[in-house]
Amino acid sequence: MSLSRYSALISAALLAACAATTPQPDGRWKSAGDNEPPIELELKNGRLSVSGGCNRLFGTARVENGVLIVDQLASTMMACDAVSMARDRDLSQLLNSRPTVRQQDGHLLLAGPGKQLELRQQEDLSAAPTRLVYVAAERKPCSGVAPMQCLQVRDSKDAPWQLHYGEIEGFKPEPGIAYRLRIKEVKVARPPADAPSVRWVLDQVLEQKLEQQRVAP
């Protein structure tokens, strides 16, 4: 074997080894700035899920040599306001641009041509129990420590609505839209006397449907 051929094989092997050992930023990440709503990104076992505008973006992804490579990026097809749709386009362009990835001290920075996104690492909820719930399109008045507006939730379409005294972390419902969610139930170690012992954290929006408002006769 010639020296040049041998060198080429060694270089290819080293590149493959580097790609294989590149740390993958697996986990849940959330925008570090004052974005409203926040941008949330999850990368796990080569699957990417991102939300922060209107729709959820998803596809296969990996980090090689400090670059995020996303394959077959797809999206849900909800129609929203112009600002939210523009955020979706910006996120899609950034993810498709093969942005560089820098991870340090619980922060993740994605940088592409003219765009960058800084995210903070979120707690690992992979071991927390999962639950499916329906959320009604409208809140109802309720009383906790003080009068407030509670979410209405139920486990199945046939079950009666129940008041949920608290919020679902990471979930910001729009009035008039009904949802089906997958949530994580996280135990609170030492909850205050007037607080629930379980936190609900949004894992995924499975369905969302615009409900027609009923007009009183």
TrEMBL record:
Domain spans labelled DUF306: 36-112
Superkingdom, taxonomy of origin: Bacteria
Sorted UniProt keywords: Signal
Pfam families, per database record: DUF4377, META
Sequence ranges assigned to domain DUF4377 in this UniProt record: 134-208
Record's signal peptide: 1-19
Protein's recorded name: META and DUF4377 domain-containing protein
Source species of the chain: Vogesella indigofera
